## 1
Amino acid sequence: MTIPKKSDVLLNTPADVQRVRDRLVKEQKGIDPVTKEPLNRGCLDHLHDSSQLVRGVLGREINVLVGKVENTYTRNIKYWCSIDLPTLLRGIADYLEQEPLPIVHPGWQKKVQTAFNKLSAKEQDRVLMSFGYPVVDKPNQVKRKANLKKLITSRSVTYGELLEEMKDEN
């Protein structure tokens, strides 16, 4: 990295920011240092502490994400957790890369209900009939939803079976 000119050390105007951002984008070879992908809508990123020092140029959406992560850590985690944010994020990355357990969270029920609600009445009847539920009188959406709820709570079908049946005719 080149040593900044005095005029680049203390940024006062939008023109100053643009000049430094353009120089940093060139030094970064147009690559976002977080995603390692080409920069799209570069944003001058900086520390949000008392120093206000610039770190580099990030894509605008990545810059927003970094800010939200840092703010969440500062407001909700830092006061009770003894590890610093980079160490915490490395731990989170390791955790996210673990193989999940073969246990389905109850959130699956809401996902099935949402997918079911997007189907036409005819498609809903087809899904319910495939699991042994009778066709309901035509404008009776309440009864269809009640039958789906019975099906879900019966534990006779899996989340995957329900989703597969719902996408069969889509």
## 2
Amino acid sequence: MQAALEVGQITGVAPVLAALGLSRATFYRWRRGDDVTPRPRPRPDRALDAGERAVVLSTLNSPRFVDLAPAQVVAELLEEDQYLCSTRTMYRILAEAEEVRERRNQRRHPEYVRPELVATAPNEAWSWDIERHEAP
């Protein structure tokens, strides 16, 4: 930034910053001395507390809902006149618990080794020509 300031007095700031890949707004904030660290976002008043989040997570991991997507869980709970939180909040809670993935049991396929033909002497490995030849 200091080099951009020194060279910028001669040629102008815009070409120097363009060469460095910086925006002019960043340069002028730096020169002004503004604090560029972001402030923490305040917690909303209606945010779920830790106990409510634990209830939502235990509901999602219960045997009844373990194979369902959060949208399906919300729909089934609404049919029973029960509302825990929105679908998006369920996804946020699952992401914090590092459980955002396919919720159904998945079959694991083994890794197969690709066969490799190795010939150490003549006539040990044969192949064929798959190119199509036209008759004359």
